[in-house]
Write a structure and sequence with these properties.
The chain is an alpha/beta fold and about 270 residues long. The protein has 7 helices and 9 strands; from the N terminus they run αββββαβαββαααβαβ. The longest helix is centred in the first third of the chain and has 18 residues.
């Protein structure tokens, strides 16, 4: 173990010398790939480190990354990692994470560790035992919504919808029924939902204190379907108003008194 740690330390110092870094604060990039390393000493002194290559080694744990909060790209592929719990969740700025060709077995624990990475866009987990799960891809897409490229394949909108339907059926039904940005005509007592989420006809049960047009007193609905109906009805109401501007005096006419003021007639039409 001491020999492995020593080898890792020597590799770090060698890279610093090659790159000509004089101060730890200047180290933004560190390349330690393909050197057969089994362990690496703490990299905490490089608190501005952003790009780190440790791929193609024999690394089994990641405790040396505990204080490198600025990392945006981390290459850990082709190592011997079996678990990443507690080692990566603090890397909130990470955008690229490659973990393929390791020995990660527990999909749930691995994904849970990555959930705090709100900026993560590229993720590789293929060639790990956890990738054998039949719903592996959809589960990762649902759990990590910021990821755009998973296992070298772009995440499609259809995959996101399938993942939402599979792992959060209720939210999927609500989103499909409300249909943001679309016209929805759903009168009381009609069926609500799409072909994926169809419910029997039912009447809207509004909680006491919740009235149409009252945006300051929003009482939560006990049943999400009631909120769907209310949203559908309020969104489908369209109102048009018109005024005959020829009968309205201009500013100059008012000053000269050349035109008598007439009552303004406004025509308002509502469509539901």
């Amino acid at each position: 173990m001491a020999a492995a740690a020593s080898a890792g330390g020597q590799a770090v110092e060698k890279q610093l010398k090659i790159c000509g870094f004089k101060r730890n604060v200047d180290v933004l990039v560190l390349y330690l790939a393909g050197q057969g390393l089994r362990s690496i000493p703490s990299l905490s002194r490089f608190h501005r480190l952003r790009y780190l290559w440790i791929n193609n080694n024999k690394i089994e744990d990641l405790t040396f990354l505990i204080n490198n909060y600025c990392l945006t790209e981390l290459y850990l592929n082709n190592n011997e990692l079996t678990d990443v719990s507690g080692a990566l969740k603090h890397l909130c700025a990470l955008q690229i994470l490659l973990l393929h060709n390791n020995q990660l077995k527990k999909l749930g624990k691995t994904v849970k560790e990555l959930k705090g990475m709100i900026s993560l866009q590229t993720l590789n987990l293929f060639h790990n035992p956890l990738a054998q799960d039949p719903d592996y891809r959809l589960y990762v897409i649902y759990s990590l919504p910021s990821v755009q490229l998973l296992d070298r394949k772009s995440v499609t909108q259809r995959e996101r919808e399938s993942a939402l339907h599979l792992y959060n059926r209720e939210r999927s039904c609500v989103m499909q029924s409300i249909a943001f940005g679309k016209r929805v005509n759903t009168p009381l007592g009609t069926t609500v939902g799409s072909s994926r989420c169809t419910q029997p006809a039912r009447r809207l049960m509004m909680p006491s204190g919740c009235e149409f047009g009252n945006h300051t007193n929003r009482v939560p609905f006990e049943n999400p379907e009631d909120a769907i109906l209310l949203r559908a009805m309020t969104r489908s109401l369209t109102e048009f108003s018109s005024v005959d501007w020829n009968k309205v005096a201009t500013c100059q006419e008012r000053q000269l008194g050349n035109k008598a003021e007439e009552p303004h007639e406004k025509l308002t039409v509502q469509f539901r």
